[in-house]
């Protein structure tokens, strides 16, 4: 009987094919995420510049300046929405414990405001896609209050 003779072999082939399909899907998903991350790394400096300027600009002098700032803010918000549309979110770092997976410390300094090993200054916003770091936050980490 063919079922008895080839049944275990057919079952093994079915299992191997299911594993291959799952592995191929996972690899495809990973390659897709990597491509998105690589593309976003090129766009993030533009977004950084928009956010820096938005934080520095004080348009409250005239109505015309307020209109300019309003338009500028809407463009900045659009950049943010596009980035978030890819499933990328900013890394929350200020006041949080240092996480080497999503943060890059450039300095350690004494701080009365923040406990040791917590971020006390954020120089550049980091971004992540799920558990994957797109770009780390550039931060300064507190070493505690220091000698008194």
How would you describe this structure to a colleague?
It is built from two helices and six strands; from the N terminus they run ααββββββ. With 148 residues, it is α+β, with helices and mostly antiparallel strands. Strands 1-4-5 form a three-stranded antiparallel beta sheet. It has a three-stranded mixed beta sheet with strand order 2-6-3, with no helix packed on it. Helix 1 (2-56) packs antiparallel against helix 2 (63-85). The chain is elongated. The model has no long low-confidence stretch (mean pLDDT 88).
List the helices and strands and how they pair.
Blueprint: H1 2-56, H2 63-85, E1 88-90, E2 103-109, E3 119-124, E4 127-129, E5 132-135, E6 137-142
Parallel strand pairs: 2-6
Antiparallel strand pairs: 1-4, 3-6, 4-5
Helix pairs in contact: 1-2
Question: In summary, what is this structure?
Answer:
This protein has 148 residues and is an alpha+beta fold.
Distance between the termini: 88 Å
Give the count of helical stretches. Answer: 2
Mind describing the biggest β-sheet?
3 strands, antiparallel
Number of strands: 6
- Helical/strand content category: alpha+beta
Gyration radius from CA atoms, angstroms: 24 Å
Q: What is the H/E string?
A: HHEEEEEE
Helical fraction equals: 40-55%
* Low-confidence regions: none
Which key phrases capture this entry?
148 residues, 3-stranded antiparallel β-sheet, alpha+beta, 2 helices, 6 strands
